[in-house]
User: Fold this.
Amino acid sequence: MVGITKRFGRLTACDQVDLSVEKGQTHAIVGENGAGKTTLMRVLYSVYQPDEGSIEVDGKQVRFRNPSEAIAAGIGMVSQHYSIIPQLSCLDNLMLGAEAMAGPLLDRSTATARADSLAQRMGFRFDWKAPASTLTPAACQKLEILKLLWRNSEILILDEPTAMLSPPDAAVLFNNLQLLAREGKTILLVTHRLREVIDYCDRVTVMRGGKRVAECDVADTDVDRLTNWIVGEDLRPKSDLDGRQAGKTVLTMKDLVIHGDRGERAINGLDLDLRAGEIAGIAGVDGNGQSELFEALVGIRAIQSGIARLGQDDLGQESTSRRLAAGLRFIPADRHRYGLIEDWSLLDNSVLGLHRLPPFAKRGLLRPQEVGKAALEEMEAFRIMADSVRTRAGDLSGGNQQRLIVARALHQPPAVLIAFQPCRGLDVRGTLAVYDSIRAECDRGMAALVISFDLDELLEYCEPIYVLRDGRLVAELRGLEIDRERIGRLMIGLEGAAA
Amino acid sequence: MNWLRFSALVAAAAAFLGIIVWSSGVDPVAALRSGFTGALGTPYGVSDTLQRMTPLLLSGLGVAVGLRAGLFNIGVEGQLLVGALAAAAAAILLKGMPGWLHITLCLAAGGAAGVLWALPAGLIKVWRGGHEVITTIMMNYIALNFTKYIAANPFKDPSAQIATTVQIPNSTRLPDLGGSLHINAGLILAVLLAAGLAWWMKRTVVGYELKAVGANVDAAVAAGVNVPRTIVLAMALSGAFAGLAGAVQVCGYEYRFYDGISPGYGFDALAVALIALASPLPIIATAFIFGALAQGVQSAQVATDLPKEIAMVAQGIIILVAAAVGWQRFRRPS
Amino acid sequence: MFDTGAVEASLRGATPLIFAAMGGLVCERSGVINIGLEGLLLWGAFFSAVGSYFTGNPYLGIATAAVATILLSGLHVLITQRLKVDHVVSGVAVNAIAFGGTAFLVVRLFGQHGSTPEVPSLSQWTFIPVALALPVLISLWLRHTRSGLHVQAVGNDPEKSAAMGLNPIRIRTFAILASGLFCGLGGAFLTLGDVRQFSEAVTSGRGFIALAALVLGRWNPIGAFAAALGFGLFDALQIRLQGINILGTMPPSEFWASLPYVLTIVALITLGKRAKPPAALGKV
Assistant:
């Protein structure tokens, strides 16, 4: 890829980026969120067309108009959120877009045979007739890799492939990738986990602000140097968690049982006491009850049994709006879906969820002056970049949207903040700013509960750290007990029996 | 909105209509002139236009309330019919009260009947997940048959050949406010309600929540909005406007209920509301335009042999232009 | 009450519903709501009369109807796929164009209001076997062909489908045009196979009933077919049901005419959340 430039409106996501990868190599692309890694890969996969620059494969200049042409040329991509359609069977997902045919009809028996042989080569097993909705995240990842093999892809692009995987599943994934690299496949790995780069990759490209800032052999570098390239300045020293005095318990959960969408016990007997002043983190692999727990705390999923109590209030009896009135605040993981109304202005979004509370409402009427004041304060406090409060929320950048949601949650000092992946889409600096604000509120007596799949973020900012597995908290770690390896083992059940 | 594209589309639509008119052997300029004069050029014409606009305005507001909450109330036609019938029934059956109270009760009966007819769609949506488009379409047919039966049997004017009620008493008729335009009190009520609805959606907590549900239902839930209640409320409010449209038609203009009282106001109201992007105040304008269009085509038909069906073609093209230009940003919850 | 006449009348009543419901099914399985079925059916009914009347050949009438409805459904493609406008808004526009267009063209081409003269027609048996076979064929097509799989994929998740190299807009375009074609056949049946002339009231809401059949059949071709047959049966029995004494009263004809709609609502209530529409239905 030579001189690739891609602009979105005024934003230049990729600026004159060069990238060359040798056959059979595993090449990592690292950088902060918003550095342009994913955009660059999508240009290669032809989801986007570059504004400038060209692409060469095997020395020949190519120009694909869409992903199907890229696929035909042997380029395959696994995106961060997978491209598996849950309503279709595993087999149909595997061959979608490259079906095995017998005349005009689909040939599912031949397809199954080939699917089995591919799966065997990688040491996987699949029930091909089962709907893909039954797959775990790790199984989805495996199916995605098989999809690339099915298409005879020679160049494999993987965008944050381990974001949803536990450390051992990630290790299995990389063993598989190394197997493929030995067979001569070329692998492009987009990641922010530098350890993966050091352990498994041959070469690394570092991007920052849409530009390539470095490229070198992995053998010639280390984590510190990569970090410097990525951030462009020294990171602040690790935050100081000592000396924090926890106050009295504000949120109590006891024997909590919450059902998932299929009626299973997604949260199965969870106990937790959250104290004022704490930033508690819940670590765990996706799919162990995190979203169900969050939704039940918000009040959009029923608590089947057990108790969740905020102060004296039994949350099971309270609607979401009563919870908000009682001082509970939420930061949802999916900001487009739960956090914002994208067609509304920043102004109208600035009190969403607070709109029934004083001073924004009085006797059923909204008070525009108060709402306007809140919007300006939120913009200022979190440096939300927007032309005015009239700017449509959907036109803000992802980082600014997230800042708006956090600003709103903290606008009136909450009693308890429940945050689910609060820094999704934020870069290192944005993450720091969010936790600085959370910490400032906690110093004034707020309690925060952070549910995240990003272990590094939890390790950096939270104490205590709980580990959620199979709907239960299998450990509570404080101070010196907090250990990355141990938490990893707890997350996947190598340690700590689910009592 | 892209004004250049908008102008180009409008010009193209106008040219297309002109060609259609011309191809039917009518001079488009003469047709336009007589239509314009007929609808807006004389006090008599304006008066007729305003009369035609009244049911479109009220039922357009009904469609709009639903749309803002993300609901497609295709059942405005049926709600209007039962509203009209209920108003006529209240006018004929209730006796022995002051006129102002009687009229109020007639209008209230119309609105309540509209609510009753709209509620199943709202309840089925929140309770069973059934799409309101299907329910309201079904309710339309039931309303059509039901009102026809009532007008043809228990309420039939024995002296009439068709399915109609007797005339309502003078005391239940909405007054003509006089002047050369003969503005009916029903129109004033409709305009006031449009202003009231605009204010309500902008300034009240419930209005804010209704718009939130329409714009992003998941975000509304997370913000503590009681979505089922809001959806049922929006549907009820929508039905109330539609039922009131029927009541005003009976008490203000027709003075009786008959089978076929609505030539499809409820369906035209979809267009009226869509073109105004479901905002109450612009609906006053679009209802006026549609009223003028219907009145103008009728005048042009008399003057120039223009086929009356051209009005339907014109409406179709207007909806098309509105759909193409205005509704790209509009999203409904699934 | 049940004799060959009743069976024949039921099939006759069900045929246009089956065609329109299958049109709606293909369209909605690709994720596009189509409330323009009514307009498309009317459009097809009118143009089959035009083709048949002016060529004297009813088969050319069918062809004319097919071309005309495919073109009109192209409007739905344009508005929903190119301009990315809400599907129901577009359906309202399609219906408005069809109602206005046919009403106007009847006057222009035939010089009379509301209906055409009698046109050269066909036996209803030209259409009924096609209508009976169509649901089975569509069912097989959805399951066992590449294009059927692609329609399902796009109907559930267009973005992911695009990432797999599918072209959602092209697939949806194809599905929308197919819905036009089927409605054209249904409309042609109404004019050429049933009443032998076109009138404005020839569809009288059958497109909307087809939509109900589609929902009641839970977006499954065989289910929608069964629902359409049920509506057809009811339609045929209606005349015979009048005059039946229930609990000492004779329900009026309006009661029987309303019953299918009431039953649809009852079915919506009882079916409840088990109805599984395509996951991306209505997403522009």
Q: What stands out?
A: The radius of gyration of chain B is 20 Å. Residues 116 and 172 of chain B are 22 Å apart (CA to CA). DSSP finds 13 helices and no strands in chain B.
